[in-house]
Every structure is written in structure tokens, then in C-alpha cells.
Amino acid sequence: MPLTVMEAEAVQAELRQLLDLTGPGPRRPARVAGVDVAYDGDRLAAAVTVLDGTTLEVVEEVAVDGRASFGYVPGLLAFREVPSLLEALGRLSAPPDLVVCDGYGLAHPRRFGLACHLGVLTGLPTVGVGKTAFVGVHAEPAAERGSWTDLTLDGDVVGRVLRTRDGVKPVFVSVGHRVDLDTACHNVLNLTPRYRLPETTRTADRLSRRRLAENRRTGLVESAQHDETR
DNA sequence: GCGACAG
DNA sequence: ATCTTGTCGC
């Protein structure tokens, strides 16, 4: 029972009322999860990797197969990825203390991006880390790691453009659920000791792609999974 | 009205 | 997201 664009926007407005922006959120999370989805046509693999918040070692992984039941529509990305991500998160042995999402949170046309959506549905603290500009205006942050500038939309500060490596293109950080912007950026910097992107998104990205490749090679796919609605 | 537009 | 070769740099 696929949603239309109008219905999806109505759902966002409804879930938006459950969003908790009071923060502050965990500053020293013991377990931090990264989530990502890889695609092969309408087939997909959703992955969750949980890292030790101190050592950044991967302590748990879950990958699930699925199908994209909603096309990519800017502003409605969550409807494409959230279903599978919920399934993957649900299979963890224990919930993480923080979830780092690929994409935006509050920095969204209707202030309810993927990170907010996943946060409200799981009740977990979430932050969004985008790799490219989506909405809002901003100045270029200084070249040093840790420098940042406001990401503004309609006069509101909805996120930060944060430099995670000296002289390297910055990332776009916005809060999702139950975390404030300072805490979100603090965590993103802790998760980027060496590369531009947080270790959480790097490990989740690799896991989702690895899963797709295995499926492609094995040909088993999800025949033993949920069959289509017949 | 015409583009731009997270992943 | 994904399609794709070589190339620059640590």
C-alpha cells in the first residue's frame, strides 16, 4: 500500500509533532550506530553498524535485504529508507545510545528529514550528516578541522556546515531527535579522527554494499524473505 | 514559469 | 544512490 507524495507529506506533518528538540543528548555515548542503504535497482540492502563510542571499533552489525517501495523524491527520502532501517535496528542485541544518519534532520524543507523521522519512530537520539547541500544558505567555514558556519533556512539556524578535516570539503550536520546541535557536532568530530565522514557512516556504507554484492553473487536474494503482496 | 533538489 | 579511468597524494 504505497503512499502518494501528498500522503507522505501529511505523515511528516503528523510525526513532526512528536519531535523532541530539547536535547542535550549523549556527549559520551557508549554505543554509536551508523545506518545506510545501498541500491541495485529497486533492490536494496540496509545496514546498521554499532561502534564503541571510545575506540570506534565495530561491536555489532546487522544487514537486511529489501525493496524500494517509494521512489526518490527530494524531501521524502525517509519513506524510501526508513522501513528497512527500522527492521535492521530492531535486530540489534541492544539499542544504541546515538544513531548517525546519512542525510539531513531538521535542515529540511518541512523541518523533518530522515534523521528526525528515524528518531521519532525509534525514540532514539539521532543526528543527520549530509555530504552535499540540500537546503539552506551558509558561508564557507575556515579551513581548519572543527571550524563551522551556520546553515540557515528561512531565517532559522537549522544546522551547521562543519569541517571535519583540514582543507577538505565540509559536511552538513543537523539534529534529528533528542540531541542539540552542539552535541551533534561534538559527536561528529569524535567520529571523524581521520576521514571526512564519520566512521559510523563509513562502516555502515561498506556493510550495505558488501551485502548487495553478496546477494548479486549468490542469487539467493530474499526468496526466503517476505514475498510480494499476492 | 523554470530550475534545483539529502540518498 | 549509481554509472565510471586515470590520477594526485600520503
From TrEMBL:
Its main location: cytoplasm. The keyword Transferase does not apply. Mg(2+) binds at residues 36, 102. Keywords: Cytoplasm, DNA damage, DNA repair, Endonuclease, Hydrolase, Magnesium, Metal-binding, Nuclease. It is an enzyme of class 3 (hydrolase). It is found in: Cytoplasm. Its EC number is 3.1.21.7. It catalyses: Endonucleolytic cleavage at apurinic or apyrimidinic sites to products with a 5'-phosphate. The record marks 72 as: Interaction with target DNA. The keyword DNA damage applies. GO terms for molecular function: endonuclease activity. Its cofactor is Mg(2+). DNA repair enzyme involved in the repair of deaminated bases. Selectively cleaves double-stranded DNA at the second phosphodiester bond 3' to a deoxyinosine leaving behind the intact lesion on the nicked DNA. Belongs to the endonuclease V family. This is Endonuclease V. It comes from Streptosporangium longisporum.
